[in-house]
Specification:
eight-stranded antiparallel β-sheet; about 170 residues; alpha+beta
Length: about 170
């Protein structure tokens, strides 16, 4: 008798799950292997010529409601590294980038973006931690809503890169 009751519960749960997901739209997943290099002449970004190299996997997953409307987009950077090289000296610094970035439409044409994790960190050998944007950042098209963790102004990022590579 106990076996029959468990079997009936199991069949009921499977049927309910199937009915609940019958009209669901599967998410769209796009993966892009990134291997890009950008060169900047002296004075364009730093006082010296600078090369920025991005490498890793960018996985973007877009979720939809039953009507096909986007409900959120998630961007994950897998094994992703951004490196900065002083072309005059050959000195290089790099930071892992991870995220994820989660972008959610607000229904009024704007979106809310949440970035959790490492969004840039500079550690100089022999000197230590120089810059970090790690934690949780939430913003809309119009305003920053939340900054938690170790957050520094993005305006200081390039300055920290250049001074660390000088």
């Amino acid at each position: 008798m106990k076996f029959k009751l468990l079997a009936l519960i199991g069949v009921t749960l499977v049927a309910a799950a199937t009915a609940a997901t019958a009209g669901a739209v599967l998410p769209s997943v796009t993966e892009l292997n990134v291997d890009r290099t950008f060169h900047f002449a002296a004075g364009a970004a730093c006082a010296f010529p600078l090369t920025i190299h991005n490498q890793g996997l960018n996985r973007t997953t877009t979720y939809f409601d039953q009507d096909g409307n986007v409900t959120r987009t998630e961007i994950h950077l897998v094994g992703f590294t951004q490196s900065y090289t002083n072309d005059a000296t050959g000195m290089t610094l790099s930071t892992p980038l991870a995220g994820p970035a989660i972008i959610t439409p607000n229904g009024d044409g704007t979106v809310t973006t949440k970035i959790a994790g490492n969004n840039g960190r500079i550690v100089v050998p022999g000197q230590g931690f120089v810059y970090g944007d790690v934690g949780l950042t939430i913003f809309t098209d119009l305003d920053v809503i939340m900054l938690t963790g170790h957050y520094q102004s993005p305006d200081l990022y390039l300055e920290a890169v250049c001074s660390s590579l000088s």
